[in-house]
Amino acid sequence: MRFVDLIARKRDGLSLTAAELQSIVAGVVDGTLPDYQVAAFLMAVYFRGMSPAELATWADSMLRSGIVLDLSDIPGIKVDKHSTGGVGDKISLILAPLVAAAGVPVPMISGRGLGHTGGTLDKLEAIPGFNTQLDIETFRRLVRELRCGLIGQTAEIAPADRKLYALRDVTATVECIPLIASSIMSKKLAEGIDALVLDVKFGSGAFMAQLPRARELAQTMVAIGEAAGRKTVALLTDMNQPLGAMIGNSLEVIESCDVLRGGGPADIRELTLALSAEMLVLGGVSATIADARATLVKLLDNGAAFAQFEKIVAAQGGDARALSDYSRLPVATQVVDVVAESDGVVHGFECAEVGRAAMLLGAGRATRDDIVDPGVGLQMHVRIGSHVRRGDLLARAWVSDRSKTDEAFATLRDAIVLGDGPAVAGPLVLERIDASSLAP
Amino acid sequence: MRFVDLIARKRDGLSLTAAELQSIVAGVVDGTLPDYQVAAFLMAVYFRGMSPAELATWADSMLRSGIVLDLSDIPGIKVDKHSTGGVGDKISLILAPLVAAAGVPVPMISGRGLGHTGGTLDKLEAIPGFNTQLDIETFRRLVRELRCGLIGQTAEIAPADRKLYALRDVTATVECIPLIASSIMSKKLAEGIDALVLDVKFGSGAFMAQLPRARELAQTMVAIGEAAGRKTVALLTDMNQPLGAMIGNSLEVIESCDVLRGGGPADIRELTLALSAEMLVLGGVSATIADARATLVKLLDNGAAFAQFEKIVAAQGGDARALSDYSRLPVATQVVDVVAESDGVVHGFECAEVGRAAMLLGAGRATRDDIVDPGVGLQMHVRIGSHVRRGDLLARAWVSDRSKTDEAFATLRDAIVLGDGPAVAGPLVLERIDASSLAP
Question: What pTM, to 2 d.p., does this model score?
Answer without folding.
Answer: 0.90
